[in-house]
Design goal:
Blueprint (H helix, E strand, L loop, with lengths): L10 H7 L3 H12 L20 H11 L3 E6 L2 E4 L2 E3 L2 E6 L1 H11 L5 E5 L5 E10 L2 E9 L1 H12 L2 H8 L2 E6 L9 H12 L1
Antiparallel strand pairs: 1-4, 2-3, 3-6, 4-8, 5-8, 6-7
Helix pairs in contact: 2-3, 3-7, 4-7, 5-6
Length: 192
Amino acid sequence: MGWAVFEDVPDEDAWRNCTTLEGACELTARWLEGSFRYVPGYRVQQPAGQPGPMSQALADINRLGFLTDDSQPGAAISGGYGQRAFVTGRCSEQSAATISALLVETELVVLVFPPGESGSGQICVTLEADREFTWLGRSGGPSYSLEAYSDWSNETLAKALVDCFELQIFDPVWGRNSKLMPALQAALAAVG
């Protein structure tokens, strides 16, 4: 699909006309780079920002076929606060298989939810005031994608994303930021 389709089109219209995982990945990459003000999941338009290293790494990951929907950098535990680096998103079956196969031999943890399946685990990835604050291991399953993307974009894209694998990938080492993004980029590049 040519990305020129999205040139000079208002952000929300671009999403309304987007019908594929690849198109959604490109639009999300543009949002991460600050050239788009809207991305599904954020009810209020975000101003174009100054992309930093993490935003650019996420944009690159999207362009490699992994539609990111949440992420955070790691932060070492200090004063009751800490974070494990993580990224979540959707991809094709081939990408999910390659990511799983290549990252299984690393310290990184990959949770895979095939299309139609949901999860109900709970792994803490953020501490705040010495209390668990953010978790991975849960998946809304197909109903989340269908409802969310139908409302925020269109039903065709929503159905395409329901057929994707959902992955939640995190570094179990609190505060480490040097492993996750490069490993995920390398795994996605190997899919090509």
